[in-house]
Amino acid sequence: MTFSVEPGSAHPLGATIHPDGVNFLLCSESATEVALLLFDRRTAIEPAQVIRRDPFHNKTFHFWHVFREGR
User: Fold this and answer.
1) Which of 3, 4, 44, 70 lies 20 to 30 angstroms, CA to CA, from 19?
2) Mind listing the pLDDT tens digit for each residue in 35-56?
């Protein structure tokens, strides 16, 4: 299953559940790339989807963010 994503919000830290999806935010002063790996079950070895983040659209200062639509 592939989820739609949007740039997301730079607040608050962590994973925040919204009625229409989940906002993910992490802080890293030195990261040059960030990827969100989504698994379809707890025992999965491989991710169901890998969402690579673009520092020009998904980064605010040291905060990397993405909003994944759906639950």
Assistant:
1) 44
2) 999 999 999 999 999 999 888 8
Contact 25, 61 (CB under 8 A): no
pTM for this predicted structure: 0.84
- Residue 45 structural domain: 1-52
Instruction: Locate 70 and state its tokens.
Output: 């759906």
Spell out the residues 6+ positions from residue 68 whose beta carbon is closer than 8 angstroms to its own: 3, 4, 5, 21, 22, 24, 36, 38, 51
Using CA atoms, how far residue 53 sits from 20, 27, 35, 41, 67, in Å, is 20, 13, 6, 23, 11
* 57 domain-assigned: no
Closest CA to 4 of 65, 51, 57: 51
Q: Quickly count helices (H) and strands (E) in the chain.
A: 0, 7
